[in-house]
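Explain this protein:
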Amino acid sequence: MTPTYSIVIPAYNESARLGASLEKVLAYVHQQRWDAEIIVVNDGSRDNTADIVRQFAAKDPMVKLLDNPGNRGKGYSVRSGMLLAQGRVILFSDADLSAPIEEAPKLLRALEAGADIAIGSRWLRAETQTQRQPLHRQLFGRIFNLLLRMSLGLHFADTQCGFKAFKRAAAQAIFPLQKIERWGFDPEILFLARKMGFKVEEVPVAWGHSGGARINPIVDGAKMFQEMLRVRWYSVSGEYDGAGAARASVPIAGKSHK
């Protein structure tokens, strides 16, 4: 049967923390009695990330492993998981659970209230951060956010938080058109959402900075700026014209989220 919820977790060399994260996600899902599937997308990890997922899957059929053909990037991983997911609501979360899975009801309530997409935000209410990023990461985020406003017209406080939920119709419309495969995919999917007329709600969530982040503010920041320009070019050149004026609103069935 089709699950009500799908949780997609992209993972690259996450053996040190994935086990603990899966335990927390599974405990919460079972506690809430959700009809759910948990899809871990292994992005060509060189450690035993895949083996950890297989061990969980052997014990709990909710857990599924999806292997990328080599290391393709976070954007590729999220797109693959979102397109495989069968849930009526599809949420993706970073493997480190910087935004705890217990924050999911905040996104689900936004969907129930009429949004097609709910995005977690670290900066809409900064006091919700339990542990802030280093200052240089905060500065990078502020500059990147300003560039997004100027280049793509995205007026969100936080596009990069790895905690977003989609009604199925929105996910099925947006992710087949996604072209950015690495760190800059978040602005692209939000740009596509706006182009298609989907309602996006930004929701403040508890969030704590986790060490071990692989993004380099200088190197990856330059790449992300190039990806912003690519999104603008794709739009101007008609690469996204297949999006049309899609609009969907799918009611959520299942347990209430109080």
